[in-house]
């Protein structure tokens, strides 16, 4: 019997050792969907690079033996069917602990029901239409909403201009930008002379901008997705002479996204935007982030707001992993995400509103100026402190 006992205890000890090993080698999987192809292909790499930089700097904060793996997928742009299929595969086949990333609203909306069915926490790092977070209790958004920037922008503009025109991409965030700006502007005495909605995936904006020019507004508010689309607007605005005609161009920060400023050139000078972050923001945490980024990625030395969404999103995910020592329960994760706070984000103090699971943050009034020989979104004023999504606040009151 003695040998058998020895065998048994050895097996038991081996089993325990294996279990201990499994516990020690815990890997948290993040299904990370973003955009590497199509018109806005430039945005995905910024999002991913911020996540990788965060992971590199914070690997030391993880509980012993816990690793984080990003499983990266390309949705190719605003493409809800593709995003849904990718999310399904990530949930069922890869058994991810989180879904994260996502530039485009239609993609986030298509993924939302899956996150609710499968109970997979989904940390949205860009998609910015207000309604998204209401579509699943497993969504927390760390990016922004168009209402957060465009509503205060409308209030600000009403003090300076009488007649405004709005031009937006014809989908969720564009509709929100139009509604939010118009409300802020008209509630404070401004008049919307006309509005136009343009196809999302289009660089040919000349016919629309010609119509704007012909109606001679004082100010034009534009929302188009950041990146190459925003640069196209800026160029056409200039080429058609709207700038020379004295029409002031304003919008959410998407239209002067930091990494595109060199491509936009001096056309962008003087453009006023409201946003939650700028590469030129002089908060120490921002300066450190921008310097670390430049060092890590000298080929794309200026980060952008999708990078910041991803950076803060990874911080929220890491807090949930650390608090649970790598053994994740989706409901516990959501509780942790709902009480997430960072007084020292590169964008300033941020938190998640536990009631709506949406980001609460400062909004800055910025102007494109030349700083040290380069175009920059200079933050001139904190136009709103700890701003909750105004769309949700307004609808709550009804
Ligand atoms: C969105 O689809 O929600 C979206 C995309 C690009 C932006 C902002 C919002 O710049």
Features:
alpha/beta; binds P-hydroxybenzoic acid; 398 residues; disordered N terminus; 13 helices
Strand pairing plus helix content: what structural class? alpha/beta
Q: What is the makeup of the main sheet? A: 9 strands, mixed
Structure ligands: P-hydroxybenzoic acid
End-to-end Cα distance: 78 Å
> What's the rounded overall pLDDT mean?
94
Order of helices and strands: HEHEHEHEEHEHEHEHEHEHHHEEEEH
Number of helices: 13
Shape: globular
Number of strands: 14
Instruction: Please tell me how large the radius of gyration is.
Output: 23 Å
In percent terms, what proportion of residues is strand? 15-25%
Low-confidence stretches: 1-12, 14-23
Helix content: 40-55%
């Amino acid at each position: 019997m003695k040998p058998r006992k020895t065998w048994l205890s050895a097996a038991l000890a081996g089993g325990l050792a294996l279990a201990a090993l499994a516990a020690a080698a815990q890997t948290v999987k993040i299904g990370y969907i973003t955009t590497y192809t199509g018109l806005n292909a430039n945005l995905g790499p910024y999002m991913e690079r911020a996540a990788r930089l965060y992971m590199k700097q914070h690997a030391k904060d993880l509980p012993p033996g816990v690793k984080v793996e990003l499983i990266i997928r390309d949705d190719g742009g605003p493409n809800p069917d593709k995003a849904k299929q990718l999310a399904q595969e990530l949930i069922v086949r890869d058994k991810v602990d989180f879904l994260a990333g996502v530039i485009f609203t239609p993609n986030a909306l298509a993924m939302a029901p899956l996150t609710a069915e499968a109970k997979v926490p989904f940390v949205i790092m860009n998609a910015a239409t207000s309604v998204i977070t209401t579509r699943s209790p497993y969504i927390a958004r760390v990016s922004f909403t168009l209402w957060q920037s465009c509503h205060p922008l409308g209030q600000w503009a009403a003090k300076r201009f009488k007649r405004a025109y709005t031009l937006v991409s014809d989908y969720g965030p564009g509709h929100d930008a139009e509604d939010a700006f118009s409300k802020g502007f008209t509630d404070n005495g401004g008049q919307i002379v006309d509005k136009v909605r343009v196809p999302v995936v289009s660089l040919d904006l000349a016919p629309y901008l010609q119509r704007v020019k012909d109606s001679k507004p004082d100010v034009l508010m534009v929302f188009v997705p950041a990146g190459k689309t925003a640069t196209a607007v800026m160029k056409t605005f200039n080429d058609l002479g709207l700038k020379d005609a004295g029409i002031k161009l304003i919008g959410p920060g998407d239209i002067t996204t930091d990494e595109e400023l060199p491509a936009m050139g001096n056309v962008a000078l003087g453009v006023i935007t409201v946003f939650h972050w700028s590469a030129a923001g002089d908060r120490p945490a921002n300066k450190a982030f921008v310097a670390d980024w430049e060092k890590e990625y000298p080929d794309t030395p200026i980060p952008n707001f999708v990078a910041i969404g991803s950076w803060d999103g990874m911080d929220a995910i890491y807090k949930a992993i650390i608090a649970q020592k790598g053994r994740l329960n989706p409901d516990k994760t959501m509780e942790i995400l709902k009480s997430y706070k960072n007084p020292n984000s590169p964008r300033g103090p941020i938190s998640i509103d536990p009631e709506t699971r949406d980001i609460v943050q400062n909004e800055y009034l910025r102007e494109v100026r030349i700083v040290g020989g380069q175009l920059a979104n200079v933050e001139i004023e904190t136009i709103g402190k700890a701003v909750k999504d105004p769309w949700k606040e307004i609808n709550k009151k009804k």
